Amino acid sequence: MAVYGTGALDMYNTKKEKVLFSITEKNDQGRSFYEVDNGLPITQQEQLHHYLREADKDTICVPSTRSMRIVTDPFNYTHEDQVLPIQPEQLFFMDYTSKKDLENTDVLDIGLGSGVLSIFSLLNGAASCVGLDINSRAKMLAGYNAVINNIDKNFHIKDGDAADIFRSVDGKKFGFICSNPPFEPTPPGIDYYVNSAAGIYGLDFVDDILANVDRHLLDDGLLQLVTMAPGNAKKPFKLYESIEKYLPGCSVEIVLDLQPILYADFVDRFKNIFGHDDELINHMKKTASDDGVTHLHMLILKYKKGRHGRITEINAQKVYETWSTPLGV
Ligand SMILES: C[S@@+](CC[C@H](N)C(=O)[O-])C[C@H]1O[C@@H](n2cnc3c(N)ncnc32)[C@H](O)[C@@H]1O
Question: Of the candidates 156, 166, 273, 173, which has an alpha carbon nearest to the alpha carbon of residue 216?
Answer without folding.
Answer: 173
